[in-house]
Structures are given as C-alpha cells and as structure tokens.
What we know:
Elements: H1 4-22, H2 40-63, E1 68-69, H3 74-79, H4 91-109, E2 119-122, E3 126-129, H5 130-137, H6 140-147, H7 155-172, H8 174-201
Parallel strand pairs: 1-2
Antiparallel strand pairs: 2-3
Helix pairs in contact: 1-4, 1-7, 2-4, 2-6, 7-8
Amino acid sequence: xxxxxxxxxxxxxxxxxxxxxxxxxxxxxxxxxxxxxxxxxxxxxxxxxxxxxxxxxxxxxxxxxxxxxxxxxxxxxxxxxxxxxxxxxxxxxxxxxxxxxxxxxxxxxxxxxxxxxxxxxxxxxxxxxxxxxxxxxxxxxxxxxxxxxxxxxxxxxxxxxxxxxxxxxxxxxxxxxxxxxxxxxxxxxxxxxxxxxxxxxx
Length: 202
C-alpha cells in the first residue's frame, strides 16, 4: 500500500494533468463530439460536478464514517438544460475543479493510514471505504478524458498529452525511454535498408 505522501502526490499529479489539457482546448473545439462521446465542454462540466461531489464525500468519510452517501445520475445532469453542460462557458467549472481538488488534497495530506478503512454506505455501491474513494477519484477526471472523445479535440491537446507522457516516462523510467529510442532507430534503419534493396532489385 502506498504511503499517504505517495497517495497525495499521485492525486496532485492527476489534477495537474487534467488542468493542463482542459485549459488548452481551443474554443473552436469545445463542442466537437465523436460518436456518442461527450464534448470537451460537457466533460469539463461533468468533472467539476463530480469532484464537488467527491469533496463532500471525502469529508463525510473522514468525519462521519458509517453514514449514507447519496449517488446521482450523471447522465441526467449532463442532459439537464438548466445545468447547461452543452452551452455554459467552461472557466467556472475549471475553477470549481481546481478548488475542490485543492481542498481534497489538503485533507488527503492530513490522513492517518488507519482512516483509509473508514467507510460510508453508498446508495448504489453499498459499503464504500476511504481507500475505495482514493482509487475511484484520484484519476477519475483523466479517465473521463480517455473514455470520451476529448483527445481528438485538436492537435494542441494531443501534443500536450504526448509531451506529458514523454516527460513522465523520462522522469520515472529513463532506461525504458532509451530502449524505445534504440528500437525506433533500429526499425528505421531496417526499413531504410529494405527500401534501398527493393529499389536495387527493380
């Protein structure tokens, strides 16, 4: 089991990953959809609402273990015209996301390991522990990007994601990145030699 410090670091890292991508979606791409996926605008609004819910749930898990947690229908929220997922500007939701994630992070840093066993009763999932909360919400926003069409909404987002992946790999597994570069170079050399040979045989 990771330490509280490691858990907090992973949570903060996921927050920053989401904000880097969400704040760089061009205005012209916010409402692009691929198939049945949500648009970037809808994903951002959903993540703000989901994180606001998770912030309250975290406090309940810490202060009122054994109490009830009410689920909600995220699809109904997304379709509700008053909530405006398809039309409202995203900046307020980005600020909400940033604020509640910052609040959650401060609580996570103050947790004692034994508190991870605290649980409440979720209206849909049943017993729901603080440890499960961490697993469910640490990378929830990133997972929303992955399962929706967010990554297709402009080259800027794709480039940022790629840069982040390369940076993280370089920091965490530099030897793996070096291996990938070597394999890529060998593959390019093999392709070049095969192409030259093909032209010589023609």
